[in-house]
Target: LY6/PLAUR domain containing 6B
Amino acid sequence: MLLFYHTLAVASLQIFICSGNWAIAKNINFYNVRPPLDSTPFPNSFKCFTCANAVDNYNCNRWAEDKWCPENTQYCLTVHHFTSRGRSTSVTKKCATRDECRSVGCHHHRETGHKECISCCEGMICNVEIPTNHTNAVFAVMHAWRTSEGGRRAISIPLLASVVTVTLL
Ligand SMILES: *[C@@H]1O[C@H](CO)[C@@H](O)[C@H](O)[C@H]1NC(C)=O
Model:
């Protein structure tokens, strides 16, 4: 029975991520980023913009390393430091675990007058933008797609696929 639930979970996750990637890929044409066509290192693998202490978002994305995220990570994390006037001072992006994504949100450092915002997202190269306030410094997971019009179809497909997968097994 445990195996059954595990299989179900894995199957729905896989299809969910696939359908989610499709939705994201449709929305992103920024910086001409496309999901890679080369073979993936393991199932559900993904990439994040990855940079450490870039001066701003452009310089992070422009020179970001293009590599697959480690298997123990599931999300893309972005740390943005900026002045009270909104000028970026540091941008860091990386692959992250669910635990690391608990730190999303914005904090104000009184001594320096600087702000720090952290956001997390799920999906292929999803961390294009940088968080600037409480609205976008959030943990954005794929389930958010359910609320959109096209998302309704995306639920039934994973459900159907899970049932089919389980039946075949
Ligand atoms: C948060 O930042 C985004 C992008 O910079 C902006 O469009 C939005 O209006 C901001 N929201 C608030 C509540 O300040």
Notes: Residues 132-133, 135-136 surround 2-acetamido-2-deoxy-beta-D-glucopyranose (CB under 6 Å). The longest helix spans residues 2-27.
